[in-house]
Amino acid sequence: MKKILLVTIAALSLLALGCSKSDKASSSSSTTASPTTTSATASTSTSAAPSPRLCNASALTGRLGPSSAGAGQLYQALTLTNTGATTCDLRGFPGVSLLGADGKQVGQPASREGAEGSTVVLAPGESATSTLHTTTQGIGPSCVTGASVLVYPPDNTATLTVSSAFTACGGFSVSTLIAGIGDN
């Protein structure tokens, strides 16, 4: 009977030891497998369809479209076009300020109007548009006219200048960028 008891204890000990090693190995491979899987997925995703890059100010041109007025409000499209050789992306609001003839900022920069939109992917030659909004002259408080418009594309510290005059009365705002060319 002692022999059977010893064999049973030995078998249970080996079983417990085997389970313990199995748990450690399973835990270890699980930890190792997770980063490997993530890396492989990211690598596969990148090689199958490269994710678009941020549009740099140097690869964009800007223009103002015609203005549209009504009920004391003025709206004007600000269009950014990808002039670079590669696809890039924009998301959110451009930073917009008015510049005097001397190249110095006049008035306050535009505030943001509305919610941040989704990412706009721009192939070379494609455009995205936001809307500048202010009150018409005579309706809003004091007006400031810029000889040109300074634009910070989203997530850029570099700027581009649009050589078009814009008058903001009582401040002005800018909407999020959307795909396409807007005319308002």
Brief account:
By secondary structure, the chain is an alpha+beta fold. The chain has 1 helix and 14 strands; from the N terminus they run H-E-E-E-E-E-E-E-E-E-E-E-E-E-E.
What attributes does this structure have?
184 residues; alpha+beta; Immunoglobulin-like; 4-stranded antiparallel beta sheet; 1 helix; 14 strands
Your description of this structure?
- By secondary structure, the chain is of the alpha+beta class.
- The chain has two domains: 1-50; 53-179, Immunoglobulin-like.
- The chain has one helix spanning 2-48; strands at 53-54, 60-70, 73-82, 88-90, 95-99, 105-106, 111-113, 120-122, 127-135, 143-146, 148-152, 160-162, 166-175, 178-179.
- The strands form three sheets. Strands 2, 3, 7, 9, 10, 13 and 14 form a seven-stranded mixed beta sheet that branches. Strands 6-5-11-12 form a four-stranded antiparallel beta sheet, with no helix packed on it. The protein has a three-stranded mixed beta sheet with strand order 1-4-8, with no helix packed on it.
- A hairpin with a 5-residue loop joins β5 and β6.
- The protein is globular and about 45 Å long.
- The model is unreliable at 1-51 (pLDDT under 50).
